[in-house]
Amino acid sequence: IMAEKGGFKHFMLKEIHEQPRAIRETLAGRVSLDDGRVYLDPTKIPDSAWEGFRRVVIAACGTSWHAALVGKSVIEELARLPVEVDYASEFRYRNPLLDEHTLVVVITQSGETADTVAALREAKHRGCPTFAICNVPGSMAAREADGVLLTHAGPEISVASTKAFTSQIVALYLLALYLGQHRAVLSAADVRAHVEQLLALPTKLEATLGQDAALAELSKEFFRASDFLYLGRGVHFPIALEGALKLKEISYIHAEGFPAGEMKHGPNALIDERLPVVMVMPREAGNPASEVRYEKTLSNLQEVKARDGCVIAIVTEGDTQTATLAEHVIPVPAASDALSAVLAVVPLQLLAYHIAVRRGCDVDQPRNLAKSVTVE
Ligand code: G6P
What we know:
Number of strands: 12
Distance between the termini: 32 Å
Strand order of the largest sheet: 4-3-5-6-7
Largest sheet: 5 strands, parallel
Helix content: 40-55%
Number of helices: 14
Bound molecules: 6-O-phosphono-alpha-D-glucopyranose
């Protein structure tokens, strides 16, 4: 069993550590610095359709739905297409507005989630081109969609998803670049610059995994907490949601994720000296939108401090400003705003893992949860 887990105590920890490799596999053969292009496997969607999409709708469940929210930012930014994100279980029982100029994307690690497969079928039934981001070749979603981007993260055993999530974000980034190049919104030079950043990501992830021991240490202080709050802005809001989900799934601690700007509309009432607040706040120097979000989040941090909250901040290396204010600071390597989401989730996965281990929970098989929900 230990051999199956590659020497790690749990599949979850093994899979967290596999993320650099998973992402190398997601990128392999799909990006080229030579001609500044992204290549996807052939799809049944004609080139003319790729050029003419007016809208993207993404449907998913659970952790995959959080990846979809990151994907919305990335696709809107890089391909300049409006994106809507739906829970698959909501999409399938609504009467969504769809036409042939809408690309419907489903994201599903297993490719077998009942609601997500139903959403895919509903979209096909209504004549929309469909595209699946999926980790399991030959799964239902991979077989039925008009186009498929396999994440190639390798089998994910732990119920709590980790490497599938980060590889989904990278897959969405590739899809955004692909749409951008087809719509002539991105030049070859633009695509090349993004590809360079993607190729640098696995090494940065390796550096981030070096925080494992620090997070194990941090878990000693927080494993008895009964509630956690996670806050972030922009792409770091879905990362806050994902951090909260990881913690509740495997440690059974109640946790909520919120956009940092929404604190004053409710979550502020929860803050006291017993509430750990995880603030996801990497910053991309020289990116004005990222800088603004960072400054705003920094003032949210000050509000948490004013109410005696205890802050764990995920920051970009070298952020001394935050370090003077937060009780605990976990640095991640500098990266573009979108890719810092991939780096920032890793400490949250590790924090949830170490807390769950300390609480004696069954990390790989949490109570009441299944790896894939194939019946409603
Ligand atoms: C279950 C799993 C989650 C997963 C979700 C969606 O709830 O426990 O980890 O995110 O299903 O699964 P999918 O295979 O569609 O991504």
